[in-house]
Amino acid sequence: MMANEKITIDNGFDVERIRADFPILSKKIRGKDLVWLDSASSAQKPLSVIEDMDKVYREFYANVHRGVYKFSQETTILVESSRATVAKFLNSNSDKEIIFTRNATEAINLVASSWGNKFLKSGDEVIISSLEHHANIVPWHFLRENLGIEIKVIPLLENGDLDMDAYKSMLSDKVKMVACTQMSNAIGTIVDVKEIISLAKEHGAKTLIDGSQAVVHLDVDVSDLDCDFYVFTGHKLYGPSGVGVLYGKFDILNSMPPYQGGGEMIETVAFDKITYKEAPYRFEAGTPAIVEIIGLKSAIEYMNGFCKKDIREHEDYLLNLAITEMAKIDGVNIIANPSNRAGLVSFTIDNIHPHDIATIFDQMGIAVRAGQHCAEPLLNLLGVKATVRASFGIYNNKQDVDALITAIHKTIKIFG
Questions:
Q1: Which residues form the catalytic set?
Q2: Which of 19, 93, 111, 283 has the fewest Cβ atoms within 10 angstroms?
Q3: Quick one: fold of 15-33+307-415?
Q4: Peptide bond into 280 cis (omega under 30)
């Protein structure tokens, strides 16, 4: 939403009931009520996720796919049920298109290493955007260094949107991959990835979408988007860390060599020959993050208990309220004003380092992120070295925004 849009009344969304689902929100930080405004980095976990993971460890933990005994069968069923839950969540055509990774970073590295090393050659072009997290920049640089590919970057408009006209002019038959975020983790810009994908396909390019932020705030339908790859991570989706997801079209996945070697990903092994399983298992070498994968299922089931539209309206209400109130304060600079944004706002305060701001906020029980947000190239384009980022989740309320504004005023007074 735009900062100058009308702020609607926050009703019909029982945020206090939701807050009761998150045990950590009852904690005191330095004697103050916890105000968690760092969900874009990692969201807190509802009790249902914590309990489901605890139950596995307490009652029937065992390795998966390898045992005929009861515990192994139970964990295997739950892990594969998690795969089906993710497939439905993304509207994938098949469970076989869902690969579990450690996080979104590993998912992107998997594609760059496996698909990239097989199908790219010197002089081929990969397009990324100015909005990318380092996780969607560095793996492509590996291919630039090792294969001689060229990386092109979609430029940024002054307000923080991508320059789509420039993107169109960059496309050619030399472009083999377009890898783009669906939502900026640093300034909240929502990208029209459906258009990005459609234009790329006109030139025969594959597409990878980083949905690490977007999947939390938006309805995602990979079949409708028609992307070749889509990645997200569990820990931002109110689930555990240590588990991420790579969606890939089945035929493409099966054309790619394994990313890692070991147990589970092989069909047969001899000292002079090996054969691989089909996707997704050829990309899941070794013991997976069993309990974390089950926890991801629980987190998605928790989120499925709400209407995404209601969540978005609630978060937009808080975001717009925060932006409107911050805009009234002399010396506060809101970074970028994208035409479509969600979930977070980045800002600076004149003559005060973001780390100092975040330190004072911490004394008041408020958790925000300060720094470059793993988006150094983007911040350089925006002319700032670092920002403070306040990000909102399903459990935030108006009191959290009030606390944020009070903390800004106090910080300015301290340094005044």
A1: 374
A2: 93
A3: Aspartate Aminotransferase, domain 1 (3.90.1150)
A4: yes
